[in-house]
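fyi for ur records
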Amino acid sequence: MSEPQNSKSRQTAPLQLNWRRNLYVIWIAEFISVVGFSSAMPFLPYYVQSLDVTAPGQVELWSGLLHSMHAVTMGIMAPVWGSLADRLGHKLMVERAMLGGALLLGSMAFVTNVQQLLFLRTVQGAVTGTVVACTTLVAASTPQQQRASALGALQMGIYLGASFGPTLGGFVADVWGYRGSFLITGMLLVVGGVLVATMVREAHSESQGDDGHSFAEGIRVVLRLPDVLSVFGVRLLVRSAYRAVTPILPLFVQVLVPAQDRLSSLVGVVTSASMAASAVGAVVVGRIGDRLGLRRVLTASIAGCAVCYLLQTAVGNIQQLLLLRALAGFAMGGTLTALSSALSAAAPEGYQGTVFGLGSSVVSVADAIGPMLGGAIAASWGLRMPFMAAGLGFAVAAGILMVGRSNRE
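which gave:
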């Protein structure tokens, strides 16, 4: 009996020794990577316009398609990458996502038409996915008792990167053009990938290696867990509502301030304010969730999103939009942090990669549905209506949670 116990101690000692160092390095690398991604992505509609797509309704539709095709391929590949992470190591998947993304995002600076851009975005979805890869690595390499706080810290870093990136990207786009934003993104992703490759030390679990579970076995195990499926359902609805506004937000800002010279910088400020508020929301929810109950905090956060998005339908100036985007960001930060914590708690040991991979597929399905739906609604009924549709989607999700809570009580 003493032999296995000593063996287990030797296996877990590196995990206990390195998890804080790993978290710091992964936090910095993912922060840099998210700064890169968010430096270019908010301005896709303007980049589409610069590629001679100017017909009425076409910019909205192409913007939605660029977001959706990326999400489709990411949804297809995420469970595959997650299963490989459980078997081959989670660090390798982070390196793949960051360095592969560097090549693809950098290449987008050199496209000559929107079809080439769509092709690269589609391939990007199949190759990248730094958020889920880093989340899985942190979840797998952190002791159980520190896992929730570690994931919360990582989520804060993601939001902070997303709050800084649009401002940087807006400045770069206004000074050097939209192609410069994609070059900056590629360089930042290289930095993140090199940091992970050289400084992160992964403690392999007993489930990794050739004798680990197969892809099909991992999928079967996860899909039999009702708590996991419940989180997936709520995440699908919430993410679809959130993403419905993404492709049309820059165009909506363009309508509110048509004479603005530095339009990209202004869009960057609006997006950054939302992401900064999300970082604050993530921290606040992470601290009060254990005291008030995860389900109660999640319901309140989603309801807050519903109210803020419905109010955005009626904004008359950029100041009103900025305030409501910040409030919605705070609520969304709490929502996503609560959902990630719930998914982490429901994931069985040895299947974290598969659970988070499937969770990424759910997010990708929403990322495919939301932008296409938002773009189509905007093209048919105007730029304000996607905000109405998103608000109603959040309201439905909050209602489902409240009904489920009353049934349990």
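The chain has one domain: 2-200+214-408. thats all i got for now
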